[in-house]
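Troubleshooting: if your tokenizer reports a length mismatch, compare your output against this known-good record of 65 residues.
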Amino acid sequence: MHDPETPTVTIQVLKIHPFGITAIVHGQRWIFPNWAAVLRAAGRPAAELDRQRRILEKGRERSKP
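Known-good structure output:
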């Protein structure tokens, strides 16, 4: 039985690749290396994932020639 106090998270798996899993978690598309990473992301607050995404995007911008 679902506890109404517990928030629910929808994970939509788009594709399973040989190198990882593409899934939508908290409304954002991610490529995860394995199922454990998908479940860890689902357990984290959406704001924390947004912060992590911004850090990754800044790193990509800096590495561009």
